[in-house]
Structure formats: structure tokens, C-alpha cells
Amino acid sequence: MNKSIFLKAIDFGKIYCGKKVLSDVNFEIKEGEIIGLLGKNGAGKSTLLKAITGIHPYEQGTIEVNGKELKSNYELVKDFGVLIESNFLNYLTGYENLKLLLQLDEKIENEKLDEEIDRILEIVELKDAKKKKVKDYSYGMKQRLGLAQALLTSKTFTVLDEPFLGLDPIGKDIVKKAISNKAKEGVPIIFSSHDLDDVAEICDHIILIKDGTVSYDGPMKKRIEFRLILDKVKKDVFSGYKNIQFEDNNVICLLDEDELVNDFLSCIINNDMKIIEIETNDRSLVDMFYEELK
Length: 294
Ligand code: ADP
Known about the structure:
The chain is α/β, with parallel strands linked by helices. It has helices at residues 45-52, 94-105, 113-123, 139-153, 169-184, 196-202, 259-270, 284-293; strands at residues 5-16, 19-30, 34-38, 60-65, 68-69, 80-83, 157-161, 189-192, 205-210, 213-218, 224-230, 244-247, 250-255, 275-282. A hairpin with a 2-residue loop joins strand 12 and strand 13 (250-255). Helix 2 (94-105) packs parallel to helix 4 (139-153), helix 3 (113-123) packs across helix 4 and helix 6 packs across helix 8 (284-293). The longest helix has 16 residues, at 169-184. The structure holds adenosine-5'-diphosphate (ADP). The site of adenosine-5'-diphosphate has 11 residues, from helix 1.
């Protein structure tokens, strides 16, 4: 089924102090998609996220949300959940910060606030810290409280700037699960990150920013690296594989499609080579990142 387009950037550009930071940016975000926004430091990722959430105005092109130009309909942002440079009242507890936000947001009836806050605190695993003052939270806890703020207010769209920053592997898993579950509700999500493995794990769609514009917009290109030690190597049988290297009995092969994996392994077995050791690495996003952005 074709998913409908939620947000569309058309020839969008952003100028800071007379300097073009982004230009000719075009992309679409569809309902329920999880999009990873990648690019080197200073590429313009945060600038893009701030423009599509109405934090900073934009000078060039169009950003459409459900077919409406964002610039003249900033009220649409009220239904977005945003984690960009989160702010908290440090002398209030995590629970009080979220309650205040929901009271200002006015989307949930007063009697349902506690239930909703507890539901979100459970998701970000901060329920035990709900009565602790935010000034006593660790960095990772503040990151997850920021995510809680975004999830609480996100009705139509979730935008997260570096949500994995400073999180340990357990914290990252919590955030990944929350992102995936939100997308299952049909809410599209875009997040920036430098954690390529985490992006590869949960994203359907990648946007790469290079030199202030989109250099790639689409699905992840699959690439799997096989490192094998064979009992003997018959080089000739691998002539159909272009990305292959041999050293003694070691073979390193890059396969660009999942379907090729079966052929490659059958080729080894059918030609009487015994596999002594095998290691696979998902190189999909790492290679894309370096090839596109070098
Ligand atoms: P990224 O998030 O990819 O690291 P940013 O969007 O933060 O990159 O920054 C892109 C460029 O815009 C950088 O050159 C940065 O210095 C500049 N920039 C970002 N915010 C501002 C601002 N408020 N005023 C002026 N320049 C800015």
C-alpha cells in the first residue's frame, strides 16, 4: 500500500548571517517512516531539523506539512514531538517537568495526565526516577527525559536531534524501541545520528547531507562483507564476484544484495572448499556514509 506524504521539502534553503547553510534541499517524509539523517559535523542536520519544526525560519523554497506551507501554518508544529537541545526546569522533578509541559500543551484532559506521564516514563525507563529532581539526573537520564517530552507531545511527527548522544547500550535500546513503536502508530520520525549501527538497525530511509544539500535520499543500499578462512581456495570459481580479495586461504567478499549470499555460499560448498571460519559484517550504512560523504 502506498503511504501518504506527510512532509515535503521543495528547493528548501537556509541562510544564517548571510551565509548559505542549506540550499536546493528536496525530500519527502511518508507516514510511519523512520528516517535517519546523516552527515558530517557542521553539514546542516540540526539546521534542517530546526527549520522543519519551526524553531528557525527558512528563507528559500517550501516546506509542506500535509500539503500546507509550514511558514504560514506554524500551528501545525504544536502536534510535533521535538527533541532538539532539550530544556528542563532543573529544580523540578522529571514528573513535574512533564506535567507542566502537558498542561501547557492542553491536548490531554487533566484527569488523564498522570496516566499518560506514567505510560511514557515506563517507555523511557524513568519511572523509578520520576520524583527525583532533574538537577540530580545523569546525562543519559536527561536525554531520556527529553525523549519523553517529545513522545508526549508527538501526535503527527517526531523529530529527534542526536537522540543516542551519551547513552549506554541499554539506553540506546530503550530509545530505539520507543522510536520503532512510535512509527508503528503511523507517526513518521526523523532523527539525526552518528551511530551508524543504530541507524541501520531501525531506519527505512536515509537522508545524507553533504555540502549543504541532500546527497542521498532513499533506502539503505545493502552491503554485506564476508570474511572466510577456507581449507583450500579455488580462485577461478569466484570469477563472477567483482568485490573479492584473496590472501592465502583467506577470502574477503563484499555482496551488494541479500540474494547473492546463498549463491556465494553454494559456490564454496559445491566446489568442495571447506569453511574453517566465517565472519559477516553489515557494511551497508558504513560504506554508504564514507562513499557518499568523502
Ligand atoms: P550539524 O547539525 O550537521 O552538525 P548545523 O546545522 O548545526 O550542523 O550547522 C551547519 C552550519 O550552520 C555550521 O556551519 C554552523 O556553524 C552554522 N550555524 C548553525 N546554527 C547557526 C546559527 N544559529 N547562526 C549562525 N550559523 C549557524
